[in-house]
Amino acid sequence: MILLLILLFSLENSILYVSATTFDTYYARIMYNDVYLYKSPIDLDEYANIYFSLPRTYFVELLESSNSEFYKVNYLSFTGYVKKDAVQTIVGKPITPYLENQSFRVYSEQSRDMRSEPSTQSGSSTQVVYIPLYSRNLTYYGSIQGEELVNGRTNIWYYCKYSADQDYYGYVYSDFCDEFDLDKIPLNYEEVSYTSEPNFDTPQEADSLPVENKTTAIVIAILTIPAIVFIFMILKGGKLFNKEIRKQTKEIQDY
Fold it and tell me: N or C: which end of the chain has fewer CB within 10 A?
């Protein structure tokens, strides 16, 4: 009987554990174009306060509610801020949260400097590294509107990583690059369930947990019940057997 109680207690706790498990992280989908990753939680749409525009349909990891307007987030290896009304919180963790493996080439002789801001107006003070012609080891992260280096062309700069003797991060002027089309960035069609804004101060409610956790609890119960019944039958049979032995022993003693 003690063993049966232990099994019942273990089953109860396992179901409670599954149903009450909370997420360690929260994610939110980027719902629109031109959603910026800000450097500070201030509504200032200037490149001094913006890293780059995040790709629509992908996700950011929510770290905390910075204020009534901004979340503090992670995107790949970057920590910054996004406006709450530009993203939608989801249930669980997405399979493919970030846009990755997007590369391009620098092909123009005119300017191949990576800069710390999308502009040349500050001169050499914003130069990060010189990129050799036809370099392809540049990884795209996002874009931003900056200085129009060639009149009548574009003011779009790419924020990227350039891998050489080390990894360099900064902006390159998009009109001097090719083998990449900003308009053909693949969208993330992953199906997710949306939920309300998380409360970072309290555990998440069980009702907002993924369905698979509840399913796991049901499976545990289904698999455990036959074992409990089997053990119960063994214990009951053992009691009957012991009772019969005692009866026979008593009859022998009486004889």
Answer: C
